[in-house]
Amino acid sequence: MQRLTVLGTGVLGSQIIFQAAYFGKEVVAYDINDEALEKLPARWEYLKPLYIRDLPDATPEKLDAAVARIRATTDLGEALAQAELVIEAVPENLEIKRDTWRRVGELAPETAIFATNSSTLLPSDIAPASGHPERFLALHFANEVWKNNTGEVMGHAGTDPAAFEAVAQFADEIGMVPIRVLKEQPGYVLNSLLVPLLDAASGLLMGGVATPEDIDRTWRIGTGAPLGPFQIFDVIGMMTPYMLNKDSDKPGAREFAEYLKREYIDKGYLGKGSGRGFYTYE
């Protein structure tokens, strides 16, 4: 599959777009308004030095060629016209995703394969909205996709095995390590391991047990991990944990979401990509 359309140009969406283009795919970036698309050139300039830092084969010429393979539009029909694969990276809200896929199902080519990048929702909860559940599955990327390069491929009971393998092959072609998730699992493999850590960290913070810095320091020293949980929050960005927690029934989750909004999101501190989250970045 050579022609990719990515729906949503936020932190993960923009990374997926750039990663696919870097590995030679023709990519259409879709978002709902021009304001979102106008931020993309600055995003590419932000990503370029990170690729040079982390990937031995990255050169300015290769990175410029990647940007040249990206086209942006707010016209959904135009975005989907030639798509062989559609990857959705819109906010982590079931109704938003279902509504997006209803429109995609009406406009996309009959042969296009559909993949959600949802971190927590199951493909079977979203697939019927697309009108083509047999061509629907999940392809989940970790943040900083060029470096943390797992591509978790997860279908549902009605996913065509050929579509599953086509997406696994696509993941391999864009520099991912395909992780074949053999049955539906909320959170896939990665987030099934990661979310309990982040929940525990937010509980310690909201309970006044320790500061983010000391919680992170404890985790790094005690386990040898390169990042603590609040450093991970900064990499993920504040909007994802906010969306996941604001309507949650888990004890303390809504309080943590309100804290993130009040102390960080409302002040423009959206995480590492914005230059500030729990920590400050150059």
UniProtKB/TrEMBL annotation:
Q: Name one GO molecular function term.
A: (3S)-3-hydroxyacyl-CoA dehydrogenase (NAD+) activity
- What pathway is this protein said to act in by its record? Lipid metabolism; butanoate metabolism
Question: What is the main EC category here?
Answer: oxidoreductase
Keyword vocabulary terms for this entry: Oxidoreductase
EC code: 1.1.1.35
State the family it belongs to: Belongs to the 3-hydroxyacyl-CoA dehydrogenase family.
Q: Which InterPro entries match?
A: 3-OHacyl-CoA_DH (IPR022694), 3-OHacyl-CoA_DH_NAD-bd (IPR006176), 3HC_DH_C (IPR006108), 6-PGluconate_DH-like_C_sf (IPR008927), 6PGD_dom2 (IPR013328), NAD(P)-bd_dom_sf (IPR036291)
Residues forming the 3-hydroxyacyl-CoA dehydrogenase NAD binding domain are 4-184
Q: Which NCBIfam families match?
A: PRK08293.1 (NF006143)
Q: Does the keyword Oxidoreductase apply?
A: yes
Q: Does the keyword Oxidoreductase apply?
A: yes
Ranges where the 3-hydroxyacyl-CoA dehydrogenase C-terminal domain occurs? 187-281
Q: What is this protein called?
A: 3-hydroxyacyl-CoA dehydrogenase
